[in-house]
Amino acid sequence: MNNLARSGMVICALLTASLHATSSFAAVVIHGARVIYPAEQQEVVVRLENKGERPALVQLWLDDGDKRATPATAQAPFTAMPPILRIEPKKQQAPRLRYTGEPLPTDRESLFWLNVLEVQPSAADAKDRNLLELSFRSRLRVFFRPQGLPYPKGAAAPRLSWKLVPHEGGHALEVVNPTPYHISLGSVELVGKGRGERYPKAPNKEVNDSLLLPSGDIKRFPLPALRTLPSGALKVEFSAISDLGARVSHSADIPS
User: Fold this and answer.
1) In total, how many domains does the chain have?
2) Which of 16, 42, 80, 81 is the most exposed place for a label (fewest CB within 10 A)?
3) How does pLDDT run across 116-170, given as a tens digit for each residue?
4) Domain shared by 129 and 198, yes or no
């Protein structure tokens, strides 16, 4: 049994509870909205900060998209160093992620997930009170970016291809991502150029549902408020999330 699997057994029993626990009481904060891993780098650093009043015990592991994977079962060509760490109150730690070299596509990004599991330590007087101690897990996207892609990430969102299509008795916006990048959308709305009518996409069924477009992906966004097609030219207004987590606004004409 390797060290990571062995260390995973230390906290694994708490993972089931963490999948359903709200993070509103978590003390450990991850700096950054995502991790970009350029292929030419040997490792990247993730910054964690304990904003709580007690020390925090944190476990790190990566997976390929399986939310229920544990440190012992997760599949990803990365290691986190150290896999378990202690962060003192009001202090920061900078664990490292290292690519282990398994073959990955060289013509497009690959997506993995970093799990940050925080285990709440028991209070000093816990034995004298009825307390429920929980653990909290956060998942952060890790984009592995090959060298030699034809243009930078910032030039990807304007290359999305949009059109209006029939959908379940109404209409939807269909988008194609022809770029080598994953593109995360923040908002999508159809707009009439003439009178300025606005038709937002349907609400997400889940958090961030359908808003991530992998390379080559095709998705449809239903427009529940669009009953009949408006006259005149149409455009789509959307925002894309940058590498730094900022929303960048874009627009594109809809072909008639």
Assistant:
1) 2
2) 42
3) 999 876 655 555 555 445 678 999 999 999 999 999 999 999 999 999 999 988 9
4) no
